[in-house]
Amino acid sequence: MATTERSDRTAHDYRRFRCRECGRQFNERSGSALNRLQVPTDIVFLIVLWRLRLKLSLRDLAEILLLRGLVFSHEAVREWEAKIAPLLTDALRQRRRGRIGRSWYVDETYLKVDGRWCYLYRASDSDGNLVDVYLSEHRDQVAAERFFRSAMAVTGIMPETITSDKHAAYPLALAEVFGDAVEHRTFKYKNNHLEQDHRGVKGRTRPMRGFQQPNSAHRFCRAHDEVRDFLRPATKRRVPISSRLTVMMAPSSCISPLPADTKPARLPADGSPPISRVIEPVLEHGAPSAGSIRNSNSRSGRKASPHSQGRVMEQPSSSPSFVGIDVSKDRLDVHILPAGQAFAVACNGEGLDQLVAELRMRAPSLIVLEATGGFEVTVAAVLAGASLPLAVDNPRQIRDFARATGRLAKTDALDAQIIALFAERIRPEPRPIADAESLALGELVARRRQVVEMIGMEANRLRQTRNPRVRHTIEATRKTLEAQLVELDKDIDDTVRGSPVWRAADDLLTSVPGIGGITARTLIADLPELGRLDRRRIAALVGVAPVNRDSGQMRGYRAIAGGRTAVRNALYMATLSAVRWNPVIKAHYTRIVAAGRPKKVALVACMRHLLNILNAIIRTASPWKTA
User: Is there a single domain that holds both residue 449 and residue 388?
Assistant: First the structure.
């Protein structure tokens, strides 16, 4: 957003600004907190309001406004908050002065400031209206006295009753500030609504990276609670939220307005965002509803009947079954759907034999495991050796699936149930498990990558060190790592050239200009799917496929995300060479840059193009041919 300051001023000594895009003029009073702003005031107020009200970080706000043509850094938002938040706090406090009830509920919660826990005192009246907020580094009588004196000064009201917990500081502070004029109550459960209301400020500060100073934390918490209380549907103030938003600020012509038929969302009583409801998809005609799919031996209650009622307990062999296994160090928790049966076996040779015998008898359609840091390798190898359909999936996807279905609790047995439900609903494609030779090659390539990183670390330390003795130890360590790197390269080369399949793949990959031995070995070890998937799936697997971020008429920024980092890094270095020496990739890169795209975008597009070429070469077993 670009503005121009006019040379003249108004009759009341206001500075005059003009927006270069919309032509609207903005006035600022000289010497005020809003002086020298380069962005129109109403837009600054809107950004600060979003900062206080929504769960957005500073960088989130900068990225959101960038989509509307407003270019500024996240540090600018921090400065605007420091200027605008106290003004909002003072104005809103003045509006509610004398309108608070005389029955107060007081409690404190915890916030971390500069690595230390601080105490945030908060109070509300019997109608849920905010009384005051105070941040203290201590939880004692002095802090409680300051809080009560500040609350009386802000509200201008002497309370009649104050309800708090049984902390010893409260009776002493109340006697010092109010004497015998206030009744102190410590009934159990009376403060439950206030304790639950802490979720507002706690949830808002969670996406942030914490506070560095108590003053900034105090300023943010006061402004957040004041704005939240102002926008909260009150029990006595019959003022709509839309009217209160209009009082706080008017929309700017620089920001696209909402459609005329847009209605404001109805917020819950605590001011938190509305909870979205899960809508079940419409099933095909004749299919049972989602709620009616259950075990034939189950009944309408939550607990299964202990009696078989004369029915056969085993599922028909034609019915597909799905198995979820939660792998831990010492135990395997197994859950089978749709039978709903669960059991556990020990994670050792005897337990694995028992598991294979049980699963062979049931002949499941799919077995799903989580990748749990290496514990799943032995289990997957045993199940794959028994010719059972197996898929090892990303645990983040399964956890997201659990959250999407409303299952937030987590135990080993529940995890196995979630994995089985994931297998039944999502049905990931079974993938072949790497054999012992492939695992050994993968470990060698990973170790080489680690050694290269350590050599770079030692080189950085050497440049920053002046002590001769320290430099000698760094150089010795670096020479040792370089010798290990030579040995690893020889072991990797012997392993690849010793296998006819890998040797042929290595020759095919290195025939492409820009692909060297290191990139080829990384692809062979870390991307065994190369040549087996289509171009879209292999690009998504590596993480070089741009992800759409569109909503309505808004077209978001496309960027790559996820994928296999090691493969993507090796492919990036190969692309840097290919754009210079590979005629096909060079032409592709030149064409994209000539179209006005950034060079980094062109490089990512060339990475995907090069990956598709390598995928086709491995699939057809045809080496590179220059046109």
Answer: no
**List of residues 6+ apart from 69 with CB closer than 8 A:** 1, 21, 254
* Dihedral (CA of 70, 73, 79, 81) sign: positive
What's the structural domain count of the chain?
4
**399 and 460 share a domain?**
no
**Burial state string for 535-564 with b = 16 or more CB within 10 A and e = fewer than 16:** eeebbbbbbbbeeeeeeeeeeeeeebeeeb
Query: In the numeric block, which tokens belong to residue 260?
Result: 């005329």
Of the candidates 466, 387, 491, which has an alpha carbon nearest to the alpha carbon of residue 430? 387
Report H helices in 386-465.
395-404, 412-425, 436-464
Angle at 342 between CA 336 and CA 343, to 5 degrees: 125
Both structure tokens of 191? 């403060």
Taking the C-alpha atoms of residue 291 and residue 77, their distance in angstroms, rounded to an integer, is 48
Do residues 360 and 467 both lie within one domain?
A: no
pLDDT tens track for 570-581 = 999 999 999 999
List CB contacts of 529: < 8 A, sequence separation 6 or more.
Answer: 431, 538, 541
Q: What is the CA radius of gyration of the chain?
A: 32
Q: Which residues of the chain fall short of a pLDDT of 70? A: 1-3, 10-15, 24-41, 188-189, 191, 207, 209, 233-318, 627
